[in-house]
Amino acid sequence: MSEEKKWYNFDLGFTKQTAKTGTCGCGKSEGSCGSKQQPKTTIQKEEISEEAFFEAAVDASIGEERHKDGFDQVFEVKMDRRSAFRKLTASLLIGAGAVNTSCSITAGDASKEKAQIDWEEQFKGNYKLMTDDEKEATVNRLMRSYELRTGKNLSMTAENAKENVLFGYAFNISKCQGYMNCVSACVEENNQDRNSQMQYIRIHEMKDGNGFKFNDADDNYYHEVPAEGHFYMGTQCFHCDNPPCVDVCPVQATWREDDGLVVIDYDWCVGCRYCMAACPYDGRRFNWSKPEVPEKEVNKNQHYLGNRVRKKGVMEKCTFCVQRSRKGENPACVDACPTGARIFGNLLDPDSTIRWVLENKKVFRLKEDLGTEPKFWYFMD
Amino acid sequence: MNNSTKIYLLLFLVSLTIISCKKKDEYHSLDERIHAETRTGANGGVNSEILLSDKNLMEITEGHHTFLIPERKGELTSYSCTECHNKPLKQIASSDIKKAHWNIKINHAGSEVMNCATCHNGNDMNNLVSLTGKKIDFNKSYKQCAQCHTVQFEDWKGGAHGKKLAGWAPPRASMTCVNCHNPHEPSFDQRWPVRFNSEKVQERKDGFEFK
Amino acid sequence: MRRFKVFKSLVTDSLDTITTGSKRYHLWMGLLTIIMLAGMYCYSIQLDEGLSVTGMTDRVSWGLYISNFTFLVGVAAAAVMLVMPTYILKDIDFKQAVLIGEGLAVAALIMCLAFVIADMGGPAVLWHMIPGIGVFNFPDSMLTWDVIVLNGYLFLNISIPFYILFRHYQGKDSNPKVYIPGAILSVFWAVAIHLVTAFLYQGLQARPFWNNALLGPRFLASAFAAGPALIILVLGIIKSFSSFKVKDETIKKIAMIVTVAAQINLIMLISELFKEFYAPTHHSESAFYLFFGLHGKTALLPWIWTSISLNVLAVVMLTFGRFRNNFKTLYFCCFILFVAIWIEKGFGLIVPGFIPGPYGKIAEYTPTGIEIGVTLGIWALGAFVFTILAKTAIGIETGEMRYGKKTS
């Protein structure tokens, strides 16, 4: 009770467990629900009796120790009128809720829980400013929500950037043959919208002897590759160290993480597309419609900032497969490349292969004059 | 407007200019940042050991580089070769034994440069042979390639040529030449790209029609 | 308490005023309402399906909405051209026109905000942008600057005329000590809103077409041509449809402002054209696309050449006093100038910024019917708001609406 919630939480009794254990909204007291390590702790249909519900609501009205989230990140000062208002609303809700539960036989806990999750998701804060507990909570809510909607489990993490890691990427122009395996792997890994055929990676087919003339290059060829007299150059988000897209975002929905990844909080993005105009590398994509991925094709191994299924009207982009790279894996495009043209690694490790490439090959970056400091280099054999 | 108003206005403008400066990083450039923050061996506690756990690897040291490569002999379907090649090659060729290796086509340099015997030793089929007749273990077949492809070998050692087996974090485990290239016909085929984006074609045609 | 009573009476009186009028007035308002409803219907489709119902794509990611937004910021800023001489230079001439100008600014700002909201992918989470509740990326993002200056300007333009009208409504004179500081502030503010809006584009190194130092000043020049031109037209309409007296002298003075601003705008256009075409670099491709088309893609050619010829024609005609002082030709000039600048500052500025894309790809942009519907709806909303404001203001200024007049 030390820290009172300043914004009234739409509480149907499900957060009570959360509050006490500080884990998740699935009603489990230990571990994170649906997490990979503990598959047994996935769903637990807890029957909440009327008394329990009543109690929870009372608890909510009195105030309980909860994570600060959403509005709370700002409203840290105690405000009497607000809490009074909250208590009033809560007590009204106790009545309404009690009536509701006693009258409804079928209005299951699931739908109530769904409403609860939707409410909390709508008013949660910016991921960038969340504490680790809050990150965990929102990830658990999202997993639970997916489970409630589809009956399937997915694993989502909120893994933070590791210390002493700065991701970098090198692309060998001499090696790329234009097979586009990377593009395919990326789409499948990152749950990109199938309807609009969104793709983060573009492979530009350039004529030998013309230099890097993107204007004359074709990034949507369909003929046998490598074509005679052509070479191939891939572009994607370059994860600039001085990213113009981050500066322009009015709500800080996009930022550079400590390991150099430029990421987006899809739930915080307002969809103004200013970042898209600011990106000199065409690294950003917008969900013009609701993105559709067939359920069986959804990659269930997700990260909050990475490949979780997006919604309509938000930006998205390459994250160097944050769900993979933070675990030590290579991004999907690197693993999929049949020619070894893609090299990925930690720029801060002097023994990493990426560092060897930067120090021993003739590398260059695109549009370096713009001062964006991309962490994506090109080189040739 | 009297003087004091003007001064206030000026102060206001100056402070506005100051607060409106974009916050800059502590580093002037990415290069500076990389060098200042470099920590040998520290990769945030991430390593690739779990990713590599199901692989049969062996450590090699070439020049300054020490890293893992996949073991090769276990991958070869008919190793060891001497199970069939128990007699000298000439005798096998002349007798009526079932033909083997008929599917192998050599498309590697020209026939005036290479033939089977450039790499294989008819008298010691279990090992490869160098240009000067020295034995090369199948597990270190990259040494065979490195005899001619010295530039690629340098790049491979450093990590600019070829792929890693899994993960970016140490320990480094790289594929060897034969994991990507068929030694008998090492160049990559021409083939169709795996993807074609019909939306892009639509988008670039003539702008959008009225819907 | 008394103030509250007066305010209540003002509201009821103005409700009376705006709901009564000639048949033509009702027809006008009815028409606007229908257009607004149609626009709302289009917007509901957009909300449902997402922005894919517009012509915008990943290539051209801002279109008609942001074009209109940019243009209207200019119109709003132009109110200052009337405020400055009236309140600061004490030129009595403008006093009546200024209320109209500020009403216009309010309507334009409301349209600006509506256009921005229409352009958002997630209007439901716009609260993320509210300082205090959400996260306001100030001062890094120019968009947050724009939010501040636009809302501040909206507040100024509502409060100053409201104070004056409120006093006049009670039959009292307004106290200059109250409104003059506000007026002075709004002068700076008006320049700020337009400069900040220009910086929104100017600060993007990714788009060479926008990333040039002349963009801000050119915004100002074109705004001070298009805004007052619209005010002249509106005053002309008000003059012929109401008993509100606007002196010819006033309109002539505004015409002078329009002329000078349009001339400066033309000079800047020439300077820009010189820079782009005398020694073209690959940064000039957007300009090539705009004026001559690129790789057979020529969607903007008819628009921009219409705009330029109208612009030149208007400037030439306005330069001669004979045309400028003749109201018929003046209205004509103002109209074509307004259209010319709407094209030039609207999609003539926004769309080429995206073409060719960062990697030289060209995908042209054509607004869809739904997008046009929403746009028309928002324009109708602006006209609606302006009509209401103007009718109330005129009622008070002409003395038809006075506190206590009806009850006594």
TrEMBL record, chain A:
Source taxon at top rank: Bacteria
InterPro entries in alphabetical order: 4Fe4S_Fe-S-bd (IPR017896), 4Fe4S_Fe_S_CS (IPR017900), ET_IronSulfur_Cluster-Binding (IPR050954)
Keyword vocabulary terms for this entry: 4Fe-4S, Iron, Iron-sulfur, Metal-binding
GO molecular function: 4 iron, 4 sulfur cluster binding; metal ion binding
Residue intervals of the 4Fe-4S ferredoxin-type domain: 260-289
Signal peptide: none
Record-given protein name: 4Fe-4S dicluster domain-containing protein
From TrEMBL, chain B:
Keyword terms, alphabetized: Signal
Record-annotated Cytochrome c7-like domain positions: 77-150
Gene3D superfamilies xref list: Cytochrome C3
Name of protein: Cytochrome C
Residues that span the membrane, as ranges: none
Family annotation (PANTHER family): DISSIMILATORY SULFITE REDUCTASE SIRA
Upper classification of the organism: Bacteria, Pseudomonadati, Bacteroidota, Flavobacteriia, Flavobacteriales
Tree of life domain: Bacteria
Matches recorded under Pfam families: Cytochrome_C7
Organism of derivation: Spongiivirga citrea
Keyword Signal annotated: yes
PROSITE patterns cross-referenced by the UniProt entry: PROKAR_LIPOPROTEIN
Automatic annotation (TrEMBL), chain C:
Pfam family, one: NrfD
Membrane topology: Multi-pass membrane protein
Subcellular location: Cell membrane
Transmembrane feature ranges: 27-46, 66-85, 97-118, 147-166, 178-201, 221-242, 254-274, 300-318, 330-355, 375-396
InterPro entries: DsrP-like (IPR054823), NrfD-like (IPR005614)
Alphabetical UniProt keywords: Cell membrane, Membrane, Transmembrane, Transmembrane helix
Primary location recorded for the protein, binned into one broad class: membrane
Annotated GO CC locations: plasma membrane
Family: Belongs to the NrfD family.
PANTHER family, per database record: POLYSULPHIDE REDUCTASE NRFD, PTHR43044
NCBIfam families per record: DsrP
Protein name per Swiss-Prot or TrEMBL: Polysulfide reductase
UniProt source species: Spongiivirga citrea
